[in-house]
Amino acid sequence: MHSISPAETTALNWLSDQHNTMFEHVQQWTSINSGSQNLTGLSQMSHILQRAFSALGEPKLLAPTKVDAVNANGESVPVVRGHNLYLSVRPQAPVQVVLAGHMDTVFGLDHSFQKGRGIEGDRLNAPGAADMKGGLCVMLHALKAFEQHPAAHELGYQVVINSDEEVSSLGSAALLNEVASKAHLGLVFEPAQADGTLAGARKGIGNFTAVVKGRGAHAGRNPELGRNAITAVSDLFVELGKLSGARDGLTINPARVEGGGPTNIVPELAVGRFEVRVKQHADSDFAMGEIKQLADMVAKRHDVQIDLHGRFNRLPKPLDTRQLELFDAVKLCGTALDIPVMWQASGGCCDGNNLAAAGLAVVDTLGVRGGNIHTSEEFMIIESLCERARLTALLLMRLATGVISVSPKTPS
Fold first, then answer.
1. Ramachandran bin of 59, using left for φ above 0, alpha for ψ from -120 to 50, beta for the remaining angles
2. What is the full per-residue pLDDT of the chain (412 aa) written as tens digits?
3. Domain range annotation of the chain
4. Residue 117, class by beta-carbon neighbours within 10 Å (0-12 exposed, 13-18 middle, 19+ buried)?
5. What is the reported pTM?
6. Each residue of 252-261: b (16+ CB within 10 Å) or e?
7. Is 312:284 a contact under the CB 8 Å cutoff?
8. Omega of the bond prior to 288 within 30 degrees of 0, cis?
9. Distance from C-alpha of 183 to C-alpha of 52, rounded to nearest angstrom
């Protein structure tokens, strides 16, 4: 184990003095609603982040790629996403790292959780405090500390802060894939658990929509002439639910049904939305085959048409040898700083899945410690701002000096 060097100590001590500044950033950022659909709030947030990260270089705001979605009428229509922040520093350096995060939250303008509800003990309860405006603050200050190290010129990095991670990163997936092609490893600033546990292996995820087209009819005079789309999509959801557990870790969550109308009309259209999660890459192919067979079976059973939309947009991130090497490197940095580092598998997905699918070793929970994310009880442990920034800064310094070696990428 390597002790903390004088150069590392200087940078780490600077970080220890940034606690108040970091906390003020998080309080300001969480006061801005930047739900994935709130383009005005996302624009405001992106410009604030652009100014903050300009201390490191010249961040750009890049337009998202085109995204289509199926609406409640079963039509595929364009969906507008927010701009994504991108920063490149020293692209010719021998070691290249991607640092990724997201500015969007799950809390829309119609959600009751709009402002921070104050500090209780060591915790801040605020929308996006943990997931992941606290993480963005950790990233920013870790990079500022790293730039003070004399070997900083040996490491280049790309920062991506996207605006649609909470809605599967479809408008930023191409950008993530592009930056990954130029890097050796990835660091993502999703929150760790309250005790500091990192997410190790992650499941893959697919989001799907079934558009069911039946036939309308008078519900009293001649219901036999109708083909009930609501009944058919309900039957499909029951059958899909039976698939959960067919493979280890395979889960299917029927989540939403849209359609129907007056009770005296047999509904001719229904839109069903469901999610699939898998542990292994091969399980996505298995699930797709089963889903298509079930859709065909239900369509015949109810004499309706079922059109499936969607795909597996995030592949599983297994904890293979290269991933473990990077986790072990983070653990060694934690040991040097008296920060316990452990990890466990997670059913959740994030942009770490995207970077891993592009061939990178990735640690994707380097953000603050916190919990109850995606709820109005979301909290960030305040002292973890400096703590996690110190952990990332030390990792970057040791990558730059070669104390931690970089493994070759795996083909994507």
1. beta
2. 578 999 999 999 999 999 999 999 999 999 999 999 999 999 999 999 999 999 999 999 999 999 999 999 999 999 999 999 999 999 999 999 999 999 999 999 999 999 988 888 899 999 999 999 999 999 999 999 999 999 999 999 999 999 999 999 999 999 999 999 999 999 999 999 999 999 999 999 999 999 999 999 999 999 999 999 999 999 999 999 999 999 999 999 999 999 999 999 999 999 999 999 999 999 999 999 999 999 999 999 999 999 999 999 999 999 999 999 999 999 999 999 999 999 999 999 999 999 999 999 999 999 999 999 999 999 999 999 999 999 999 999 999 999 999 876 666 5
3. 6-202+316-401, 204-314
4. middle
5. 0.94
6. bebeebbbbe
7. yes
8. no
9. 23
Residues forming beta bridges with residue 265, ordered by sequence position: 218
Q: Does domain 6-202+316-401 have CATH number 3.40.630.10?
A: yes
User: Are 146 and 11 within 8 A, CB to CB?
Assistant: yes
The answer to whether residues 42 and 155 touch, using CB atoms and an 8 Å cutoff, is no
The CATH number assigned to the domain with range 204-314 reads: 3.30.70.360
How many whole angstroms from its chain centre is CA 153? 30
The CA distance from 131 to 373, in Å, is: 6
The closest of 141, 114, 120, 102 to 24, measured between CA atoms, is 141
